[in-house]
């Protein structure tokens, strides 16, 4: 019984760390593409109108709120 609880804690810790790495990779790719790749291949100037920065902020707010919602309901 105790060993199965320890194993489940290890599995939960593994998946939690994996989710954190996926979120960090997503944020890195989101920022990289919106700051460098999208302005490079489009006519929109990032520094002039702030379109890419607006995209980062809106998508970041969405993903943070979704992550908080998911964590809060997964503990019920």
TrEMBL record:
Q: Which UniProt keywords apply?
A: Membrane, Transmembrane, Transmembrane helix
**Listed transmembrane segments:** 20-41, 53-73
Name used for this protein in its record: Uncharacterized protein
């Amino acid at each position: 019984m105790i060993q199965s609880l320890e194993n489940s804690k290890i599995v939960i810790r593994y998946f939690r760390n994996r989710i954190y790495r996926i979120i960090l990779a997503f944020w890195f790719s989101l920022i990289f593409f919106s700051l460098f790749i999208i302005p490079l291949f489009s006519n929109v100037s990032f520094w002039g109108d702030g379109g890419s920065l607006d995209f980062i902020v809106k998508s970041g707010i969405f993903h943070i709120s979704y992550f908080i919602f998911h964590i809060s309901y997964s503990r019920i």
